[in-house]
Amino acid sequence: MQDQHAWSGRFSEPVSELVKHYTASIGFDYRLAEVDIEGSLAHAAMLNRSGVLSDADLDAIRRGMADIRTEIRAGQMEWSVDLEDVHMNIERRLTDRIGDAGKRLHTGRSRNDQVATDIRLWLRGEIDATVGLLAELQQSLLDLAERHADTVMPGFTHLQVAQPVTFGHHLLAYVEMLARDAERMLDCRKRVNRLPLGAAALAGTTYPIDRHYTASLLGFDDVCHNSLDAVSDRDFAIEFTAAASLAMLHLSRLSEELILWMSPRVGFIDIADRFCTGSSIMPQKKNPDVPELVRGKSGRVVGHLIALITLMKAQPLAYNKDNQEDKEPLFDTVDTLQTTLRIYADMMRGVTVKPEAMRAAVLQGYATATDLADYLVKKGLPFRDSHEVVALAVRHAEQQGVDLSELALPVLQGFSALIAEDVYTVLTPEGSLAQRDHVGGTAPTQVRTQIARHRARLA
Ligand code: ARG
């Protein structure tokens, strides 16, 4: 009787249909096919160099794998659930093609170190792609920030108008966040980029392997130095998903703001029609569906993080089948983050800004009250007293329905004799901005300096 499974020699009955489907991972891990082949070719080359595999066998493996790769790329590979996972599907296909040489490939290796290697190879490529997409979104935000380095908008605390900022400055806050997200990804990449292969099932192998050689063939910076750890921990996947969660959280914050700004009640921006949808019943509606979905999808990625953390928690050494469950959350995290970044970069190019509405909101909110207080302090009044003076002036302006900058000089002087004609340079939003002229401040010259710094960093 032909073995159903590579491992079924000692079993007296085949697994039940239900169990077969329950334990199979081919339904999702076929995604690792290309890196699985890459890892196998490096392993075979190492075995050959160490004298474990003949030249003829290595040649046959190389030819067989090249054909299988072509077949996979052409969508012609038939994945079988009977063969459980991507590793055994490819190995069986190889053996069908080249015979015994295919059966020798698995010498000194286990699926445990094989799958750990595959995930690391795959994730390394996806980290690089994600960092590229993060850069693209940052560029798109920088373009918009540059056009609005001088555009006055209200800065908020507690969602209430606080002090004037520029729209460019506001956008740069997100560039900072995304820059840290990329930094986190690249830091995580260092720990992803280590080779588990050679750990075999858990204890290492009796063959004279050269793990550093395999590592160099696969572009790994180092090998994992403990075989038990190498096959069992998925902390690198958790780390990546945590970094991805933070990136999604940042995008959920920007999404919330876009939704708010686009609300007709606020009217600061408009988002191009191609990112919005209408209502099937209310003809007047234009809904910001994309930012809303991003906000929603951020929850999904955080969910994957929790799933992976919970998966790893309390697992005894070394490999346990639990770890097969690492793939779907990881794959979906990558897919969700990458498509979100792609669509976001394009959406930000489709944002139209309404500077008059932003400026009007600044004036309505007495956003320069702090500037008046600072002005009085610079003229010698203690801050607590000046806070009081300005509160009274704001109350008066509010009663008159005007902005502080619209109060006549004698009226202002009624609140403090220290006030002179030069007060108007700080009471206007532009005056308020210009004075915050230090690193990290909102003055338009500082905003331009930061834009240049980011551009140089991303170049
Ligand atoms: N499909 C398995 C996984 O994803 C491969 C490793 C299986 N190893 C084992 N001893 N059952 O983790």
SSE order and pairing:
Layout: H1 17-23, H2 26-29, H3 33-49, H4 55-73, H5 86-98, H6 100-104, H7 111-147, E1 152-157, E2 160-166, H8 167-192, E3 194-195, H9 211-218, E4 222-223, H10 227-232, H11 235-262, E5 269-271, H12 289-312, H13 327-349, E6 351-353, H14 355-364, H15 369-378, H16 383-400, H17 409-413, H18 424-427, H19 429-435, H20 444-458
Parallel strand pairs: 3-4
Antiparallel strand pairs: 1-2, 5-6
Write up this protein.
- The protein folds into 3 domains: 8-107, Fumarase C, Chain B, domain 1; 112-359, Fumarase C, Chain A, domain 2 (Up-down Bundle), CATH 1.20.200; 366-458, Ribonucleotide Reductase Protein R1, domain 1 (Orthogonal Bundle).
- Helix 3 packs antiparallel against helix 4.
- The strands form 3 sheets. It has a two-stranded antiparallel sheet with strand order 1-2.
- The mean pLDDT is 96.
- Strand 3, helix 9 and strand 4 form a beta-alpha-beta unit.
- 62% of the residues lie in helices and 5% in strands.
- The protein has 459 residues and is mainly alpha-helical.
- The protein is elongated.
- The protein contains 20 helices and 6 strands.
- Bound molecules: arginine.
- Arginine binds next to helix 7.
Give the names of the bound compounds. arginine
| Alpha carbon gap, first and last residue | 62 Å
User: What kind of sheet is the major sheet?
Assistant: 2 strands, antiparallel
Rg is 31 Å
Outline the low-pLDDT stretches: none
Strand content: 5-15%
Please, what is the CATH homologous superfamily of the largest domain? Answer: Fumarase/aspartase (Central domain)
Decide which structural class fits the backbone.
mainly alpha
Number of domains: 3
Strand order of the largest sheet: 1-2
CATH classification, class level of the largest domain: Mainly Alpha
Number of strands: 6
- Helical residue percent band: 55-70%
What would the average pLDDT be, to the nearest integer?
A: 96
Shape: elongated
Instruction: Please provide the ordered H/E string of secondary-structure elements.
Output: HHHHHHHEEHEHEHHEHHEHHHHHHH
Question: Based on the structure given, which CATH architecture of the largest domain is correct?
Answer: Up-down Bundle
Number of helices: 20
